[in-house]
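Model it.
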Amino acid sequence: MRNIKYSFSVFGLAIGMTLWGISLSVLAVKPTLSAVDFDMAKAQYFQRCAGCHGIFRKGGRGKNLEPKNTVLKGQKRLEKIITLGTQGAMSHFDDLLLNKEIINLATFLQMEPPVPPTMSLAQMRTYTTEYVAPKDYPAKPLHGLNWKNFFIVIERDAGTVAIIDGDNQKIVTHIDTGYAIHAMKGTEYHKTKQIKDVGRFWYTIGRDGKVNKIDLWQRPENMLIAETKMAYDARDLSVSGDGKYVIAGGYWPAHFVIMDAITLNPLKIVPTSGYNTQGEFIKDARVAATFTSPNTASFIVALKETGKILQVDYKELEPLTVTHIASAELLQDGFFDPSGRYLQVAAQGANKMVVIDTKDRNLAAIIDVGSLPNTGAGANWIDEKCGPVAATTHQGVNLVSVWGNDPINNSSNAWKICYEVETAGAGENIRTHNASPYIWLDQINNLEQSGQQSVQVLDKKSRQIVKTIRVTTEPGKVALHMEFNRDGNEVWVSVWNRSEAKKSTGEIVVYDANTLQEKARIQGLTTPTVKYNVYNRSNHKT
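Modeled.
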């Protein structure tokens, strides 16, 4: 009886407090961390979570993680989610974070997010460093190697980029670049702007906003020739068709910055806050991706939360001409069609592919696809029935969606789904080559470890998955991102050593693109992820 009366009295107290408008949560102890643990958790959130959930935790690709939501889940539930991940394509972090780090991160998520600082043009210029003066750039390559068949490889957690010789599959050098490089782009062929030695200069940007310039003609130890910083959190950059400017987009501050491509001196800041397609003002409208139009003198900037595409002319910086094109929310990555006129961009919040006509500067089409499309560098090829097509993988569903993309010569199939293929797992990258009969795709978001460690091969002619290749069987490692060599007769697949992020136990596995048999393993890499072949990238080979 005593226990029953006690339980009833607590229940009555709760009802009474509710009637008087007093919440039980008011009496709860607010989550706290020591200054050291708070700074560590803040860094972990920035490194592992901010990309999907946002600097202010308002959500995006991931859910809203403001205290009004996280407190309701509670400490233990948050710890479990961080540890095991979710079926909504959130990765598990038990192989990346220590138990204490998981506990602290769960507590941090229940506290008010700290307000990050802004960054001025003057601040950016203090980071600008020249390691090799332009007057000292060599007139010819200093190493005697076939630099046009180099592979540029992100070593994510090492804060480095590896240069690998595609001819002999040997590592040329490792270049210090800064935390978690997210994008690398070199100079590219342009329809009207002619650059000498296209593909020679490459630019990288990390999640810390650090930008690096690399010269592939230098001796390996001198390839890093300049650097700067344009944000505290960033994802992408591009080089103008005339080779004069670099544009980089920030997650925070929410802006894009145009820099001198020779010196990396920041020249102009343009804020990106604004209204989304629903008329809501977005303070932290993050730059999800940037592109260089192959046919026009313009950059393309995709704003994640507002769903706006900005076409930015670079012929004159003052005044800067910008065309605003409304599309769909939560823009992600994208790629051009073979003509270079149409940009195809994933909109993850709407489960669409949006198509931008860079000649007419407008929205050409919106295509319905599956959950959370993610194109990576994308894939274009010729289908026997539909003609020219493109495709995307998805982070939220086991599916490849293929659509027609030639409105000039094949208008009946343009911007319509041609066919879809069910895969073994959700993925993030799809690649092909015009010399190959196959399309390759990863499944890094597969719920099973064996799936995360495998890639699949889709036959262009039969439209069927013809082979699943187990790239690695080692625990804590996943297979991702495929890239062809210059001739299209080899495919390189990364083995990301997630659980040994500080060790050089990652590798790249090289496959024969025709027989699909393994040819070689390039070892001695630390967390290799995305990689690009110089010739393919500079010649728009997707």
